[in-house]
């Protein structure tokens, strides 16, 4: 009984703490989202979002202009890839060139699963 | 036997990785966009620095055989040193040189040109830097050589050198 | 001047000791002696002592700002506060490598003291392998990265330390991280020794487990400190960027965590011998791979060290020599698995640990290929790509759901064979409750509701399972705390990413803006001159809908040497959320770029990692 009360208290504590939070969805948060996935050409270890270089600042303005023009997130990535090369996006495409990148972990996972299966069931 | 083959392939695998890493050491870790030749320059319109008129890039470019677009700014030190070369180029040839004034203050830009001379036939304002980005540039100074069909023949990242200038002269003649 | 001489000759002497220890250990191995000769003890102590001397003389050169020393000149400045002069010692490539050596020699010294119950041959072999690593690093230091190079003429002033490194969290981050990162070397040496000795058994597992737990504990705390630092100093509110530097610390961590679990199977059931050894060897190998990736400059990262291809070649050859050595030893000395190897049952603790390993290896492979694939692609096709957060999230998060569920179901199973009936219906009911709660929380957000709800539910479920475990009488306290910490960790990151909110604008002094329910007022600004920087401190007042005012003081620092601007965020942490504000100068204007963020449950991310590591260290303190 006490245990159930504890659970209920805990759950309500959790739910209550969400009353204060709300969600943003406007152009500036859209720009943030896109610029986090873009790599800055000036300070190359950082994303456009994190960087304060002139390049990154202008890039953010350009992104918001493109959004106002009605371009989708994907179209903006395509546009920038066309200008600066695939390097600029942090999300590598799934194509022949990057095939190993995407499927190597998955193959390893299947292989590992088979090993465990053999260990547990075959013996 | 099976075991030997297994160990041998493991050794081969690591040798492969070693080779890749070893070769990778020679590569630069800094990315520079590949220069795509014969790409169409994106159209843009902007305000002229002196006349305050709206101008479209298409109009400026198509009336001349060749156009050099030079991205510059009064606060950028390399632009200052590049300026003499541009002045020289504008005196020597009748090449249409267009300035794209990057993230600058109007007064500073005008003062800069008063002081060092004006090699540009037109000077367009790029106050927030977005035009430069849409052209595929990533810093100042940077220059694009175009033909009258708005096609980028050459792209120069960083200040123009005298070698670049002789190349430009060769192309336009 | 003199301190550099002392430091340099200490290093030389240390190398000579290392070589003589290599010979000594072989000599005594052949002699079949029953005890470890006193000479070896003395030499090990002397070696450690000498590296301490060398390290201290570098610290001393930093303290007195001896610019005749090239490392000091490159990384220090006379106006820097004393604390950062000292910590600057390991804030650079050469100094941090000296710290490597310090940890390497410390660990073998401690290992020999605390392994008295182990066979003599095994201990001698451990010394032998550790000395191979140590001598390699001595050579690396002496040949390519000597911290005691002289400069002449002596410069008057140093170049200064990068201001973002002048920070308390980052000052202690390297020593703690290295205790784990480099400490894993002893696991490497000890497992090669036990491979040759063929004493991989329950006893050995009990003995090596402590070292694994210690290295794991420090590695976890080290990564945490780096993350906290990135949160308030480097990032604009982010704490993990999937940057190569972070990834290379995560790889040994994943490996070590897998090992942490596997070694328990070896201890309790005498199973998985060769797998335990492979993981032991892999952990330190990943530390070395990380060092190679970061120090050679092969990858582009936020915080790179001064790059030198020569260093890259040296570490690369050294690293692969260690790998080849291990493979060859594996080939020569076959591991004999015990007969009970066949007794694996589906519903048992050992199978659930295997599943843990399965996922750990998957996560590891994602991090590994995500970090190194650009190198392969560039060498083979000459194209450059970037691999960042979207890639890692796509491949990791879906598997995280399964991982959490397995973790909740598997960790309390019995050894050898458990029963289906022990999986009660109440658990299924509990899981559905979790889905409902999670759905309720997530449904207001714009993200993929179904997916996020399931992830949240899995984490919540693990949380409840561990709370229940905690309340039950015969629990495994260290495991429960760690696993509870992990579920809390996933939950806080999830909620944090769902409910973080950001507002950015250009503001003038005195301006007031409204963002959602809050008013943000730029009320004051003042500038202060500090010892080695000038500081501009702004004051922002945030008024929420209940008229509570929070004052925040973000700062811009203009360091004089080197001349670098940094933005120091101001963060007000409460139990529910962090208010995070950072300002930036806009060139030539009187306005500032202001970024204000509310980041819920930030503190819970740190707390949960602390819980995870506390759970781990409790295992060391526990008496068997």
What's the gist of this structure?
The complex is a heterotrimer of chains A (123), B (173) and C (624). Chain A has 123 residues and is mainly α.
Question: How is this structure best described in words?
Answer:
Chain A is mainly alpha-helical and 123 residues long. Helix content of chain A is 62%, strand content 0%. Chain A has two domains: 25-91, Cytochrome C biogenesis protein (Helicase, Ruva Protein, domain 3), CATH 1.10.8; 94-123. In chain A, helix 2 crosses helix 3. The two termini of chain A are 45 Å apart. Helix content of chain B is 42%, strand content 23%. The model of chain B has no long low-confidence stretch (mean pLDDT 87). Chain C has helices at residues 2-31, 38-63, 70-75, 82-87, 93-113, 120-144, 168-181, 184-197, 202-234, 244-269, 273-295, 309-332, 349-381, 389-410, 425-442, 449-471, 477-499, 602-621; strands at 501-507, 512-515, 518-529, 533-543, 549-552, 555-559, 564-568, 570-573, 577-585, 592-600. In chain C, the strands form two sheets. In chain C, strands 2, 3, 4, 5, 6 and 7 form a six-stranded antiparallel β-sheet that branches. In chain C, helix 1 (2-31) packs antiparallel against helix 2 (38-63), helix 2 runs antiparallel to helix 5 and helix 13 (349-381) packs antiparallel against helix 14. Chain C is flat. Chain C starts with a helix and ends with a helix. The interface between A and C is large, with 54 and 67 residues.
Mean pLDDT of chain C, as a whole number?
A: 90
How does the major sheet of chain A shape up?
Answer: none
Total number of helices of chain A: 5
Question: Which pair of chains forms the biggest interface, and how many residues does each contribute?
Answer: A-C, 54 and 67 residues
CATH architecture classification name of the largest domain in chain A: Orthogonal Bundle
- Ends distance of chain C: 51 Å
The CATH superfamily of the largest domain in chain A is: Cytochrome C biogenesis protein
SSE-based structural type of chain C:
alpha+beta
Oligomer: heterotrimer
Can you tell me the overall shape of chain C?
A: flat
- The N- to C-terminal Cα distance of chain A equals 45 Å
CATH fold description of the largest domain in chain A: Helicase, Ruva Protein, domain 3
Structural class of chain A: mainly alpha
If you compute it from the alpha carbons, what radius of gyration of chain C comes out, rounded to the nearest whole angstrom?
26 Å
CATH C-level name of the largest domain in chain A: Mainly Alpha
What is the total tally of β strands of chain A?
Answer: 0
Radius of gyration of chain A: 23 Å
Low-confidence stretches of chain C: none
Q: What percentage of the residues of chain A does DSSP assign to strands (E)?
A: under 5%
Total domains of chain C: 3
H/E series of chain C, N to C? Answer: HHHHHHHHHHHHHHHHHEEEEEEEEEEH
